[in-house]
Specification:
Length: 352
């Protein structure tokens, strides 16, 4: 069909020119890319591949406005505003855009354009068009797959962060539980004071330290006098409150290095490291006695209870915790025998 046009265009019938035109025509007819010539934004010429790509058979596009293959007037205007300056300056237009087939369906194109003579736009423009729908679809599928992957990674990261937070919380809970168990194993439930086991540990440590520095440790064994009648008269509950109040008073008297513990029942043991002398230990015991002898006001009852206190000293009375506790107990027993409410320093003669 294009052959006729070329025949018409050949004036003079020079064989060489005719041959050249036939060759160009063959290129256009067989190109796998769509090729068009436009002038004044109208189709002047389009090759079979272009007609096939856009669904316009034969010469139907020739003479029509090029806007007919754009999805909308706006899309056409947008492309024109980009293409105008590029083509006018002699550069090659290279763009990707959606175009419209005759049946209204859209497809993706790569469009290359160049003015035939940039200095004279009336000479028209040549456009080469490639259908890149498959590549675009593949790109979009890849993009969607990438987005999906990104979403899953984020989801998984969030899940892991939550699992991590749960794990941390569990570890924290377990640590707290362990701390609580350790605390309960080392403290007296009623008064919150260190229990016998913890006191013995601390006493061993104090002995070790004193041994290294040629120091002295005092052990004060305190037993409340006639505590049983308070229980009997006011009830066990008041007795408990009195034991708690006693513990609070003892705590107040002590230095940071000292340990006050509940040994059991109405018995308390004080471990006083860094003791200068036996006299200093006796004075400390007397201060304890004075503080405990003050009346207690518990649930409208004014209660008085005195302590009997026995003292032993490291290194004079024993080399380990159990010996020192035994000596302090013996001294306390002597305080009871001496009429209660007094302080006794251990003397080996007490054991005989
Ligand atoms: N309320 C209360 N009483 C307790 C607790 N533990 C032991 N007791 C009581 O404390 C009393 C201790 O009595 P003892 O030390 O033997 O005798 P006491 O009456 O203090 O007399 P002396 O020590 O000889 O002066 C007993 O009646 C125990 O039942 C406790 O946790 N709470």
């Amino acid at each position: 069909m294009y052959i006729d046009t070329i025949h018409d265009a050949i004036i003079g019938g020079e064989d060489e020119l005719r041959q050249q035109l036939l060759e160009y025509q063959a290129i256009l007819d067989n190109a796998s890319l769509g090729i068009i010539f436009t002038r004044d934004r109208r189709f002047r010429h389009c090759n079979p591949r272009f007609s096939e790509m856009y669904g316009w058979p034969g010469n139907e596009l020739i003479g029509q406005s090029t806007s007919i293959v754009y999805p909308s007037e706006q899309a056409f205007a947008a492309l024109s505003s980009i293409a105008g300056p590029i083509l006018g300056s002699g550069q090659r237009l290279d763009t990707e855009l959606q175009m419209k087939r005759r049946d209204g369906s859209l497809f993706w194109c790569r469009m290359l354009g160049r003015a035939i003579d940039p200095s004279d736009h009336r000479k028209g423009t040549i456009f080469i068009v490639e259908d890149i729908t498959e590549r675009k679809n593949a790109e979009q599928a890849l993009l969607r797959a990438h987005e999906e992957l990104e979403r899953r990674v984020q989801e998984r990261t969030a899940e892991l962060a939550m699992a991590n937070a749960r794990l941390h919380a569990e570890i924290q809970e377990r640590k707290l539980a362990e701390q609580q168990i350790r605390y309960l194993a080392q403290h007296d439930a009623l008064t919150g004071l260190p229990n016998r086991r913890l006191m013995e540990d601390r006493l061993e440590q104090a002995i070790e330290m004193a041994r290294r520095h040629q120091g002295r440790v005092a052990v004060l064994f305190i037993d409340l006098d006639r505590f049983k009648p308070i229980n009997d008269k006011h009830g066990h509950r008041v007795g408990d409150l009195l034991l708690q109040a006693t513990a609070a008073r003892l705590r107040k008297l002590l230095r940071a290095v000292d340990t006050v513990s509940r040994f059991g029942g109405d018995e308390f043991i004080l471990v006083l490291p860094e003791m200068q002398s036996a006299t200093a230990a006796v004075e400390a015991a007397q201060r304890v006695q004075g503080a405990l002898a003050q009346p207690y006001f518990i649930e409208d009852h004014a209660l008085s209870v005195t302590p009997s206190i026995g003292i032993s000293l490291f290194p004079e009375h024993g080399q380990d915790a159990s010996l020192l506790i035994g000596c302090a107990d013996t001294a306390m027993y002597h305080a009871k025998k001496a009429g209660r409410a007094n302080v006794q320093l251990f003397d080996p003669a007490m054991k005989t």
